[in-house]
Specification:
Layout (H helix, E strand, L loop, with lengths): L20 H8 L3 E5 L2 E4 L1 H20 L3 E2 L5 E3 H7 L1 H4 L5 E4 L5 E4 L4 H11 L8 E10 L14 E11 L2 H21 L4 E5 L10 E7 L5 E6 L5 E3 L20 E4 L6 H8 L7 E8 L2 E8 L6 H7 L6 E2 L2 H8 L14 E5 L8 E4 L5 E6 L9 E3 L18 E16 L1 H5 L4 E2 L5 E2 L2 E8 H11 L1 E2 L2 E2 L10 E5 L5 H16 L4 E4 L5 H11 L3 E5 L1 H6 L1 E6 L5 E5 L3 H13 L3
Parallel strand pairs: 3-7, 15-17, 17-20, 27-28, 27-29
Antiparallel strand pairs: 1-2, 4-6, 5-6, 7-8, 8-24, 9-10, 10-21, 11-12, 11-21, 13-19, 14-15, 14-16, 18-19, 21-24, 22-23, 25-26, 29-30, 30-31
Helix pairs in contact: 1-11, 2-6, 2-11
The protein binds one RNA strand of 77 nucleotides through helix 13 and helix 14.
RNA sequence: CGGGGUGUAGCGCAGUCUGGUAGCGCAUCGGUUUUGGGAACCGAGGGCCGGAGGUUCGAAUCCUCUCACCCCGACCA
């Protein structure tokens, strides 16, 4: 592609509306332009990358035996009413009417449509298992779109739906998709992690999210350094401490702690580490107020606690509410002699001689022990795991925390949709049977943004070769210098003929401008061609990543570039 | 949905308090000189100041309403 004839409007300055690096760089490199809140134009450069991702996804899905279809973006309300989701889905479902006043929505997902399709077309168990996928524009009317493409309202998604006769077959279909997803993210050249997700009320044994690792990721994910356990922080469980159930060695004592309220202050006061203390939190739940106990150095996981208390009303009580309810301030709250229902985190079970609030303002208790000083409460998993916690799946491992961007989600749906929409096939016995469904999503456009979050430097994007809009950029310093221009043109053709994707910067711009744009655009390999180099008989080949450069003789440049690109593409 | 903010040239902004000829930098177009890491000079084009209504001799500026976008929070397969 010739830059002189391409719409590639780069920006020197960061647009004010962009908060995160991928959004800034996508705007600055001329990949996208905003049309409205959460909706974007894709310009030539951005579209090339989007298509790259799309093709990688398509290739792997086909390889995994899924069949590509293309379903309508606009869907009639009737289908959604059949499954009840017309009323359940809420404000994110963009609804509208046609000329005749009939209700429609712009599809945020396609379970209803695909189920309708297969209930009309699949009759026999012999047609199963089947897996249909599409790459489609979706619309979710996000309450607060942000971060550019990362969390837009309109976005490109690959969604796949599998249909199986029984659970075992579904398990297999799921596994095939799981492996295909790994292959997809590997093929994109991204560093990623598959993590366990909560399969929740829908049941089924499994759901996994795929995260691209990036410091700016919205999700925290925990993973074991020894086995393959990995989970979203919301769901991650730490292993229980070893049974160091040491007997009490100290008497319980009430100590005046006039200035010590926070865990830090209390630990400092008693000259102990925070893990020797116990913090008490009051929460509201459907069953009324409840006291949660955590080790001093641990954080409450509100989702776990909320699930445990089955509460729609779950929330932390405000300090003034605590005072009103118990008569003491939050800094001196404690479980001993409390009349409230108490649930303690598992990590407290084998603690002895710990320190906690005395339920009297300005006092704490030391040497507190279960059974002797207060009854053992209910124990449960209430906390966020921490870096270094032991793994709950294996003996050897410890957990590490990373940040990630969710780019894929696989889910066993079971018969939720097939049942409510009456989809059956005849089984071997000639009886009607309701197939089980799985669904598998990948945020295609989000991958583009996530890839940038993971691969950039101060000057711009540093594309992994598999997603790069161009493998090679040729910087022609001055198109008016005939020998250089002719050489660049010849090289351009040679590289194109070899199957590489090449950007030729043939603009009448100064070199500095071209370098800055090349940095922004982020092609992995570039070559600088000018009159001086032609005279010397060698031109400069540079690598975007790391910025290394070498002089290559004119008659070898073509081969060198082709080989280097092929090396990168083959992963070496 | 609650709170905050911003709408003035393609982009980034000043001007608004205190009403009186609509500006600056970058970008764009033409010219000259330049040309190996975001050039210099000369000249030019480009705006119903988000929209509607009002006050006023006169509104980017004051008042009312409205729309859009951004940020924080709540929400989120």
């Amino acid at each position: 592609m010739r830059l002189s004839k391409t719409l590639l409007p780069t920006l020197k300055e960061d647009p004010v509306e962009a908060q995160i690096v991928s959004h800034k760089l996508m705007l600055r490199s001329g990949m996208i332009r905003q049309l409205g809140a959460g909706i974007y134009n894709w310009l030539p450069l951005g579209l090339r990358v989007l298509r790259k991702v799309e093709n990688i996804v398509r290739q792997q899905m086909d390889k995994a035996g899924a069949q590509e279809v293309f379903m309508p973006a606009v869907q009639p309300a009737e289908l959604w009413q059949e499954t009840g989701r017309w009323d359940q889905y809420g404000v994110e479902l963009l609804r509208f009417q046609d000329r005749g006043g009939r209700d429609f929505c712009f599809g945020p997902t396609h379970e209803e449509v695909v189920t309708d399709l297969v209930r009309n077309e699949l009759r026999s168990y012999k047609q199963l298992p089947a897996n249909f996928y599409q790459i489609q524009t979706k619309f979710r009317d996000e309450v607060r779109p942000r971060f550019g493409i990362m969390r837009g309202r309109e976005f490109l998604m690959k969604d796949a739906y599998s249909f199986d006769l029984d659970q075992q077959s579904l398990d297999n279909s799921y596994e095939v998709m799981f492996q295909a997803y790994k292959e997809i993210f590997k093929s994109c050249g991204l560093s990623f992690r598959a993590v366990e997700a909560d399969s929740g009320a829908i049941g089924g044994s499994a759901s996994h999210e795929f995260h691209v690792l990036a410091e700016s990721g919205e999700d925290a994910i925990a993973s074991c350094d020894s086995c393959d356990y990995a989970a979203n922080l919301e769901k991650a469980v730490a292993g229980l401490q070893d049974g160091t159930d040491t007997p009490p060695t100290a008497e319980m004592q009430k100590v005046a702690t006039p200035e010590a309220k926070t865990i830090d202050e209390v630990s400092e006061f008693f000259a102990v580490t925070p893990d020797k203390t116990c913090k008490s939190l009051l929460v509201e739940s459907d069953e009324g107020p409840c006291m949660l106990l955590l080790r001093g150095d641990h954080e409450l996981n509100e989702i776990k606690a909320g699930n445990l208390l089955a509460g729609n009303n779950f929330r932390l009580l405000e300090p003034h509410e605590v005072k009103k309810l118990t008569g003491v301030g939050v800094g001196s709250l404690g479980p001993v002699a409390s009349k409230l229902k108490i649930i303690a985190d598992n990590s407290l079970a084998n603690m002895s001689d710990f320190i906690c609030g005395a339920n009297e303002d300005g006092y704490h208790l030391t040497g507190v022990n279960w059974e002797r000083d207060l009854p053992s409460p209910q124990f449960a998993d209430l906390r966020n795991v921490q870096e270094g916690d032991s793994c709950s799946r294996c003996d050897a491992g410890s957990l590490r925390l990373d940040r990630g961007i969710e780019v894929g989600h696989v889910f066993k749906l079971g018969d939720k949709y097939t049942k409510s929409m009456n989809m059956t096939v005849l089984n071997q016995d000639g009886r009607e049977q309701t197939p089980l469904m799985g669904c598998y999503g990948i945020g295609v456009s989000r991958i583009v943004a996530a890839a940038i979050e993971q691969n950039h430097d101060d000057n711009g994007i540093v594309w992994p070769i598999f997603l790069a809009p161009f493998h090679v950029e040729i910087l022609l310093i001055n198109p008016k210098e005939a020998p250089a221009a002719e050489f660049a043109e010849k090289l351009y053709q040679q590289l194109l003929d070899s199957g590489l994707e090449v950007l030729l910067d043939d603009r009448h711009e100064r070199l500095g401008v071209k370098f800055k744009d090349a940095d922004l655009i982020g092609a992995p390999i570039r070559v600088v061609i000018g009159g001086r180099g032609i005279k010397e008989g060698a031109v400069e080949v540079q690598s975007r990543k790391g910025g290394s450069s070498q002089k290559v003789a004119l008659n070898e440049v073509g081969e060198t570039l082709i080989n280097r690109a092929k090396d990168l593409l083959s992963g070496s």
